[in-house]
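Hi team,

As requested, here is the filled-out complex form for the heme C run. I kept the field names the same as last time so the parser does not choke. Let me know if anything looks off before we queue the next batch.

— J.
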Amino acid sequence: MSGDQTKFTQKPLFYWMLFIATAVVVFLIGLFGASVLERRSESYQLLQPVKPIADWEPSNAAWGENYPREYETYRATAETTFASLHGGSATIDALERYPRLVVLWAGYAFSRDYKQGRGHYHAVEDIRNTLRTNVPQPGTCWSCKSTDVPRLINKMGAAEFYKAKWEDLGSEVVNNIGCQDCHDPKTMNLRITRPALIEAYQRQGKKIEESTHQQMRSQVCAQCHVEYYFKGKQEKYLTFPWDEGSTAEQIQAYYDKVEHVDWVHKISGAPMLKAQHPDWEIFQMGIHFQRGLACADCHMPYRSEGGVKFTNHKIASPLENVAGSCQVCHRESEKALIDNVQERQEKVRQLAGMAEDLLVRAHIETRVALDRGATPEQIKPVYQLIRQAQWRWDFVVASHGGSFHAPIECARIMGNAIEKAAEARTQLAGLLGRLGVELPVAMPDISTKAKAQRYIGLDMARLEAEKADFKARVISTWGEPAL
Ligand code: HEC
Ligand code: HEC
Ligand code: HEC
Ligand code: HEC
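And here is what came back:
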């Protein structure tokens, strides 16, 4: 027997205790390590609200009492100071920047006022203020603005909510987009509160309830950041037009089938479509989606504070926070990454400019052809081309992040828009020639928003006065939007 073994046999209890103590220490170190790495799942176990949150609780402040970090970062969406080349939280007046849009939307409320989106904490204020709500709108317009919407839909039923008058619901809708829209108050699990998304999945034979957690991290956004239309003259039922698929062409095929027309163009008389903001649809055509990313990966990155890891709820341009949003995966410098984004945006913007120029000309040339006696039969194919070209252009520009989310797809769609607009003008040139019109047709001066609005016959002073009056009489009785 060696001496060591003698010791062991002499003091077995001591060595057994040393062994057990070591095992316990190793176990505790492991536990501690795991808890550092798994802060997330640990924090998830602690997600039960301390103060119970009522079903359909619309107040973000009430949820915030339980989850101060998420609440404080979410409140930061009220900031309006960050401007990037094409995005950010500072207001961009799109009609000032691109006056041709006024002519492209002539006869539709977007030609009065169109500003690029700000943070979620401005949703209620911005819809109240826009000149687009001067014209009577349905309740449907509130759908993507507020946590009061799930509450009201639960109370009234979706169909009744949509067909109510927009202004009749005004005093009920005062809380900005928030916790209620994306979370279950009992478990804090992500959940879908907007029927339109669930119904669109059902019509395609898919079940949104079977989505993975990572899919849900996009689908909560897809409740609002999508293409939609109001189905039915009276019903105004919020509908996502994905039955044929969700590319620009497939959605157009759907609209053609149901003979949907958003408005008749004031200059050309063409039956137009207005694209909303198909961010989810276009995102799915890009590399980040194909590599498994969700919206939240860039727009709601994790953040650590005092050893606690949580989701940054300041949903905004990721260019404000490249370290958190991009550099968790990419090793390139902040400048290189911002350049990558803006280079893609600029290239798509260049194509958009070409499409806008051709489309403005096509609308005006069509007017001249009609004034000189072109028949409906002669104009019909031109109308189809204008409708299809402008739909494609709008699909890309209305998706505010599209030219980064899926640059190649945006360029492809814009290329098709240019081709169709050019084809419309080729047909118009032949027609105008036969009608004895001298080419080129003279173009008006639409170099500023004001000039373009005057050209299409908008009386902006009157519209502003009407809005001021409506605010004083009606909106002022609704109370301030809640913070
Ligand atoms: C790989 C990162 C990434 C993912 C994933 C992502 N985005 Fe973006 N998103 C960006 C960048 C970068 C911009 C451009 C911001 C800018 O120009 O300031 C942007 C812009 C936007 C904008 C316009 C913001 C602004 O300030 O004008 C919206 C809205 C948007 N994204 C929504 C979404 C939605 C919805 C999804 C999921 C369907 C999504 N994004 C997925 C990176 C991402
Ligand atoms: C209930 C509807 C709704 C949901 C859900 C929603 N959004 Fe929005 N989002 C909006 C509206 C409306 C605006 C424009 C608000 C304004 O301009 O007043 C907006 C604005 C934005 C902006 C622009 C803000 C800025 O500062 O540039 C980004 C980026 C954005 N949303 C991304 C997302 C992402 C990512 C998700 C999912 C995690 C999401 N949104 C979920 C309705 C929604
Ligand atoms: C536009 C959708 C959206 C809104 C609005 C929203 N959240 Fe979240 N929230 C998310 C997403 C996405 C996650 C990440 C979920 C995950 O990956 O597990 C998240 C995670 C959380 C978590 C889990 C812990 C963490 O930080 O990851 C809490 C708690 C939470 N949110 C609270 C809130 C509160 C409080 C509000 C309102 C002030 C709110 N959320 C508003 C989408 C949203
Ligand atoms: C979760 C990881 C992840 C995050 C976060 C992320 N990316 Fe990516 N990114 C990828 C992957 C994966 C690819 C595809 C590259 C490949 O598979 O080789 C990619 C591709 C790219 C490309 C090339 C795609 C193209 O259009 O040709 C650019 C540019 C890019 N990312 C920029 C960004 C920027 C800017 C951000 C932040 C706003 C960001 N990424 C956030 C993972 C990420």
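Two things worth flagging: Residues 287-288, 291, 293, 297-298, 318, 325-326, 328-330, 337, 340-341, 407 surround heme C (ligand 4) (CB under 6 Å). Confidence is low (pLDDT under 50) at residues 33-43.

Thanks,
J.
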